[in-house]
Amino acid sequence: MIHSSPARFALLIFTGLILLWTVLLSLPFSSSTGTITPLADALFTAVSAICVTGLSTVDMSAHWSLFGELVILAGLQIGGIGVLTLASILGLTVTRRLGLRQRLLAAGDTNPMRMGRDVSESQAVGLGDIGGLLAAVATSLVVIEVALTLLIAPRLMTEGYDFWSAVWNGFYLAASAFTNTGFVPLAGGLAPFETDVYLLSVLAVGVFLGSIGFPVIFALYRYVVGGGWRAHKRLGLHAKLTLTTTLVFVIFGWLAIGVLEMSNPATLGGHGFWDTVLSSGYMSVMTRSGGLGIIDPAQMEGSTLLVMDMLMFVGGGSASTAGGIKVTTIAVLFLAAYAEARGYQDVQAFGRRIPNEVLRVSVSILIWGATIVLAATVALMHLTGESLDFVLFEVISAFGTCGLSTGLSGEVGDAGKYILAATMWAGRVGTVTLAAAVAATSRSRMFRLPEERPIVG
């Protein structure tokens, strides 16, 4: 199965890890009180950790023991790296070599379109670069999280935490930020730091780096060490699209949240100008899939929730720790619309042509993503009787593995928790991987049917 259907293998291992983490979190010594955590809460937390979502049905700072926190921390690290990528890194560490099958396996994890089909090697990361990419994944995970910990821990110490508590909570926050999980181990959450420029900036940088994706981090590294501006062609189309679209959405969210909430006394209405700029910009970055919120979405205007719904649905970059349909997907769709409006034969960007296969997959991702969100929203609304804006926000936060919450996750019954858990699972696994797992292999047909054009639009 590993070689014939990597997608099915990934789904099997991914689901198996969730079940294992559910068992571990259900154990009495995983909770601070020494009691068994109910199945629905243990499963929800396991899915939220492995899927790097950050939604929770229990108080994360009080419910879990040290063992439970270690299990959750290990889960979000595994989920952030990716199952097949982690397996490839471990295999490379043990065998000291990376064969063709291992390269194909790792390539399928960074680009699910490669699973079970013959593809052109004009990829964002070629097979020859897989070894370097795996090294970049492991290195960036360690270096970035350690750097973030060194920046966060001193700030926690000035807040009254002792040295070891500051280091532990700092590392927990660093891992939560870089993996875009959104779990907060602090008793008061981030409320004491809601106007702290230093800490919020550090967390925002960590979330941004995690959301752009390991291939982009790898491309930026090669770009910097390979000649900078004189070697601009080293920065490929995927990296350019990811960075450009991410910045556009961050700026758009920044302006929209600030303008829509500046007159809301429950959120930013009582803030000064610079505090409003800081809070709105920070919350915009968190919609990439970060989830480390400082403003209660339940107090926000309905218009703001809708804007954040759109941002969370898009999510971050492909092969990143973020969720959503991904920024490159929406970029390709907008480029296709632009090409159609201008009468171009091909979809193109930055002097490169994007093949129709990528466009078809982008359309499929959008449709399947919207279908999953719609089905989960209808089911949850029927079960809870809550309003559409709160339910839709919670569902999209789960699908986009974002973790921002109106508080609905902790109020729904067991059935609602299972629905949200399934939505998180589908959002993290990805619609492309699901489709590849179902199809197993691409099927070629030896004939083409007669053409007939329906009326559209």
UniProtKB/TrEMBL annotation:
Origin superkingdom: Bacteria
TM spans (from-to): 36-58, 70-94, 130-154, 166-191, 197-221, 241-260, 310-337, 358-383, 418-440
Pfam families, per database record: TrkH
Keywords: Cell membrane, Ion transport, Membrane, Transmembrane, Transmembrane helix, Transport
Keyword Cytoplasm included in the entry's annotation: no
Predominant location: membrane
Protein name: TrkH family potassium uptake protein
